[in-house]
Design brief:
Blueprint (H helix, E strand, L loop, with lengths): L1 E6 L2 E4 L4 E9 L3 E10 L6 E6 L5 E3 L7 E6 L4 E6 L8 E10 L5 E5 L3 E6 L1
Length: 120
């Protein structure tokens, strides 16, 4: 049983900042890739940023140089620092993690999502 719990979403004006956090808990041996996805109404769910267990990161072109993904392996937490927010960043943001359980089986988990709304 693994849970991903997100926090930090909310309403912010264009140009502002938010910091999202996601913490994994449960029967976890290790976590491989962690990522943030987002989905706006009527749109597909797209990758925003990802980070490996070793700290290598990847970003969508639309957020590169504005967002920063980081992780704390000891706390089993991934963060997304979002700066210079734009109205087009408005979406539900979902935490994503590839988790290896104590039986050494790998499974993908999703958080419940947290709403980010950027007003103009």
């Amino acid at each position: 049983q693994v849970q991903l719990v997100e926090s930090g979403g909310g309403l912010v004006q264009a140009g502002g900042s938010l910091r999202l956090s996601c913490t994994a808990s449960g029967s976890i041996f290790s976590i491989n890739d962690m990522a943030w996805y987002r989905q706006a109404p009527g749109k597909q769910r797209d990758l925003v940023a990802s980070i490996t267990s070793g700290g290598w990161s990847n970003y969508a072109d639309s957020v590169k140089d504005r967002f920063t993904i980081s992780r704390d392996n000891a706390k089993k937490t991934v963060h997304l620092q979002m700066d210079s927010l734009k109205p087009e960043d408005t979406a539900v943001y979902y935490c994503h993690a590839s988790v290896v359980n104590t039986a050494r089986s790998q499974t993908i988990y999703w958080g419940q999502g947290t709403q980010v709304t950027v007003s103009s």
